[in-house]
Amino acid sequence: xxxxxxxxxxxxxxxxxxxxxxxxxxxxxxxxxxxxxxxxxxxxxxxxxxxxxxxxxxxxxxxxxxxxxxxxxxxxxxxxxxxxxxxxxxxxxxxxxxxxxxxxxxxxxxxxxxxxxxxxxxxxxxxxxxxxxxxxxxxxxxxxxxxxxxxxxxxxxxxxxxxxxxxxxxxxxxxxxxxxxxxxxxxxxxxxxxxxxxxxxxxxxxxxxxxxxxxxxxxxxxxxxxxxxxxxxxxxxxxxxxxxxxxxxxxxxxxxxxxxxxxxxxxxxxxxxxxxxxxxxxxxxxxxxxxxxxxxxxxxxxxxxxxxxxxxxxxxxxxxxxxxxxxxxxxxxxxxxxxxxxxxxxxxxxxxxxxxxxxxxxxxxxxxxxxxxxxxxxxxxxxxxxxxxxxxxxxxxxxxxxxxxxxxxx
Length: 410
What we know:
By secondary structure, the protein is α+β, with helices and mostly antiparallel strands. It folds into 2 domains: 7-170, 3-Layer(aba) Sandwich (Creatine Amidinohydrolase, Chain A, domain 1), CATH 3.40.350; 173-400, Creatinase/methionine aminopeptidase superfamily (Creatine Amidinohydrolase, Alpha-Beta Complex). It is 38% helix and 18% strand. A hairpin with a 2-residue loop joins β2 and β3. α1 crosses α2 (48-54), α11 runs antiparallel to α12 and α12 (309-326) packs across α13 (335-341). The longest helix has 21 residues, at 176-196. The chain starts with 6 loop residues before the first helix and ends in a 10-residue tail after the last strand.
């Protein structure tokens, strides 16, 4: 498959980063492999910012930029490693990234030490995250921590400059080729949902994992690399747990089935949520579903350049509070009462990551892509509904990239 992205995309991104950060020394690390169990690893996924600058999907690569000079450091592989994982194709790395020099570790780090000495130990990088992110319950990839330690050992000053804000601002505003990749991921997701979640198909599934298996197959057959995130396909009360990944429950005819899924295409993520009825939806289920659709219509009417997401979130939450009162779920739309039935945000940035980097403390601007995903969850009634679309902010307002997929409860 031919890539949408040529080396000029990555070259231009590196130039733009240098312009934002100055022409000093920049050293960045790609992700490393992570242990799954024993000596088996998880499938490799490159750090999104590193891919944005290089296009490389090889673990343990280091990118060095210093003015007009740039090079890659690639670990060598012994004969055993080459037999299992293959040899590194240096020419392909250079062609893909547009970086004209590739060095092995010893020579590469010797050159970094020289550059650090000339720069009085000053270096810009992406500072490492904490090893464990408690609120998300996840361990982070250690590659940035390892690079930081190696830079310190090589002579860098302790307080290196952090490039996260520069890269976040760059990645938040999508270039035309990025929007093309996003649209491809979205179209694959829509086409797959129309196959897998149609009324006829849905009635053939007795368990959630059967729908997940068919969706995985459809994504791959339609050209996606796979899922952009772990899919959520859950029925009935289980949809009231927002990130319910078990997908081992039965599907009953009187239940709604929540799909929160997205294909990944050339590293870019779709993120779409729809609800379908396993049988014939009840009047109550339809009322809750319509309330969420109304909330999404309201949210979409607000999304445009200049909007602060914090203000937008408050307005959407207040609107859902009014809908909850109409549904008889709550009597007063206080924040605490609303959060009992709508515990998440209405939007997040979308791009190389499903929860992409972006400035939540600054106004939206044309070229940004966000989701719009209100929801209502009533566990005591076994009803959970979330409707989510992917939205490009334009000069005129917004364009829903996933509008082709209907929201009807069928």
